[in-house]
Amino acid sequence: MINYSIYIASKPGTKKADYNTVGTMAYGTAQMNEKLSFDQFCRHIADHNSPFSKGTIQGILTDAVACLKEQLLAGNRVVLGDLGTFSVELSTKPAKTTDDFNANNIEAVNVNWLPGKTFRNLRDEATFQLVPSRKAQDDAIEVIRNEDTIQGLE
Predict the structure, then answer these.
(1) Residue 42 burial (CB < 10 Å; 0-12/13-18/19+)?
(2) Which single residue of 23, 56, 134, 140 has CA 20 to 30 Å from 71?
(3) Which residues are within 8 A (CB) of 45 and not within 5 positions of it... i.e. 6 or more apart?
(4) What is the pLDDT along the chain (154 residues), one digit of tens a residue?
(5) What are residue 85's DSSP bridge partners?
(6) Coil, helix or strand for 32?
């Protein structure tokens, strides 16, 4: 089940909650239930009838990450089946001419992930539940915390 909340913004991603601005629209955003650590994820894999222990799975995944990084730094594209394709993309600052451009213009090397077939769009397999936004949850908790104070004023 994927929890989601709704926010109002003038364009996707801005989360500017101004209901009176012309051109604002409602958008949905995923609300994560929990964050699994690497250890928890490996335990989860091991618990799915795997013949390998959590420690073995951790070792394999740790080595896989190191090898993936090595191959990307070697300028290779790595295809991991249904998981997808990994490659690098450069973030650069411009130069006036090609002669002025060199490796110092490269500011970042980012990893791109192109999802494989299994991850392209999970919409058809997903179920959804509307939940309050994080702000609304925080506001409700604040009211609960102040409830004794409020009742004492009556």
Answers:
(1) buried
(2) 56
(3) 54, 57
(4) 999 998 888 766 555 555 556 678 888 889 989 999 999 999 999 999 899 999 999 999 999 999 999 999 999 999 999 999 999 999 999 999 999 999 999 999 999 999 999 999 999 999 999 999 888 888 888 888 887 665 555 5
(5) 79, 114
(6) coil
